[in-house]
Amino acid sequence: MDSIIQILKQNNLSVTDGRRKILSLFLNSDGALAHADIEKNTDSHFDRVTVYRTLQSFVDKGIIHTIPTSDNSIKYALCKDDCKEGHHHDQHIHLLCAKCGNTFCLDDVVTPSVQLPQGYVINQVEVVVKGVCKNCNQ
Questions:
Q1: Which of 4, 49, 55, 126 is most solvent-facing, going by the fewest CB within 10 Å?
Q2: Residues forming the annotated binding site for Zn(2+)?
Q3: In this structure, are strands 127-131 and 92-97 parallel, antiparallel, or unpaired?
Q4: Which pLDDT tens digit goes with each residue over 30-66?
Q5: Residues that bind Fe cation, according to the entry (predicted)?
């Protein structure tokens, strides 16, 4: 079975042309994608709302995760295998390349432990590092 169809079915999502094409973009991407990247690389018959709803359903199901950017927008990247609906386990660093502008998940670099004062509760830790990616540093 096609891996895209398998991912959608495992997450109880109907297999639509839009979901297949958007998920294919993520599977074939080295870095994170913005909403505009997805719109630009899919057929023009997918409107902004369809793309947004598809991305949100992928986030909700644990297929992709969000990455904050320096301009207060959001990028999206594939989750690891241990993410599931309503519970992400993507506790890694994201690198925003100053040269090419791409954002990369650094899966081998774990976010630092954060100890909050009593009474505070952590829901999510997001760390974005600005620097130069390995492709631009050659």
A1: 49
A2: 97, 100, 133, 136
A3: parallel
A4: 888 988 888 888 766 778 888 899 999 999 888 998 8
A5: 88, 90
